[in-house]
Write a structure and sequence with these properties.
Layout: E1 2-7, E2 15-17, E3 28-34, E4 39-42, E5 47-57, E6 64-66, E7 68-70, E8 86-88, E9 93-102, H1 105-113, E10 121-130, E11 133-143, H2 159-164, H3 166-173, E12 178-179, E13 185-186, H4 189-197, H5 211-233, H6 241-249, H7 254-269, H8 287-293
Parallel strand pairs: 4-11
Antiparallel strand pairs: 1-9, 2-11, 3-5, 5-9, 6-8, 7-10, 10-11, 12-13
Length: 309
């Protein structure tokens, strides 16, 4: 979830000016934090990383205009700084917040591998630009790997695991196409990765998803993951939950879909520290290659949510 506000704050990060003479007339500084700190470690999961992005006008007498505010890695988690360009009065700050939930170590590690460095740290850069320069700030999340859980039963894995591991997806497809109702019927690695890496807020074309299409897509992601957990590890949420999830996908009651999405997320994370079955081959984590492979097959629907008022 995201939020935006203008507040009186102090901020501290390096500003890189493009010109010398009049640069002081347009001074902006940015500050990025996660859970209020420059660096945090995820030691238990689910782990919530609450990011804040502040841009402050530090000029003593003149307003400054924020032209762009970007964080390329966080775009994958829904980052979009609103209402740009925006004029910031003297001494004031515009702020943006983004909450990112990592259901498991795999979710965290997959994002860490996408920042360009092969380590367990998510190091992403927030950049704010103005007329005569730019300002940058970073924050770090270190993905701590928890101890294996030998007591939770059949293994499960979360979205991040399947996003970055191609070998299990190929094995999952040996069980046949995965029916995701009106969202898609996926039968290739391209389609699977397209769903796993697709943007819940917009289609591949850039067209925004309406509330119905967004609810369906989020549920389809978790249903795909749950189906592979069942096929690969024999894990099951029980009670006909997967069939019920498919029936919700085919309907238009968004509240029921949202609730089922939460149920499947919980199931998919329930034994994410459990050991793999004997002779199971997980393969390397290659999120860059997997993301490049995926093409989101979903298309806009003509329906809308029909939840009871």
């Amino acid at each position: 979830m995201t939020s935006w506000s203008r507040t009186w704050k102090g901020a501290a990060c390096a500003a890189v000016l493009g010109l010398a003479g009049n640069a002081a007339a347009h001074d902006l500084q940015c500050l990025k934090r996660v859970n209020g700190e420059a660096s945090v470690e995820a030691t238990t999961y689910p782990f919530t990383a609450n990011y804040t992005f502040d841009v402050t006008n530090t000029h003593p007498t003149l307003p400054s205009i924020l032209l762009t505010a970007v964080d390329p890695l966080m775009v994958l988690k829904g980052f979009e700084f609103p209402s740009l360009p925006v004029e910031i009065p003297v001494g004031q700050t515009v702020s943006h917040a983004l909450s990112v939930v990592f259901d498991s170590y795999d979710d965290c590690d997959t994002l860490a591998l996408l920042d360009g460095t092969l380590d367990a740290n998510i190091d992403n850069v927030f950049t704010a630009t103005f007329d005569l320069g730019l300002s940058v700030s970073t924050a770090r999340v270190t993905c701590g790997q928890p101890s294996p859980d030998l007591t939770c039963g059949s293994a499960t894995r979360t979205l991040g695991y399947y996003q970055s591991h191609l070998v299990p997806l190929t094995a999952c497809l040996l069980g046949g196409p995965i029916n995701l109702g009106p969202v898609a019927s996926v039968l290739t690695d391209v389609g699977l990765e397209g769903i796993l890496w697709g943007d819940p807020d917009q289609f591949l074309s850039g067209t925004a998803r309406n509330d119905l299409d967004r609810a369906r897509f989020l549920l389809a992601q978790q249903l795909l993951v749950a189906t592979c957990n069942q096929r690969l590890f024999g894990a099951s949420p029980g009670g006909g939950v997967l069939a019920q999830a498919l029936s919700f996908l085919e309907g238009t009651t968004c509240g029921s879909m949202d609730s089922m999405t939460g149920t499947l997320r919980t199931f998919n994370a329930s034994c994410s520290r459990g050991p793999f079955p004997p002779l199971y081959i997980t393969g390397p984590a290659t999120p860059l290659a997997a993301r490049a492979l995926g093409i989101d097959p979903s298309l806009p629907s003509l329906g809308t949510c029909t939840d009871p008022q």
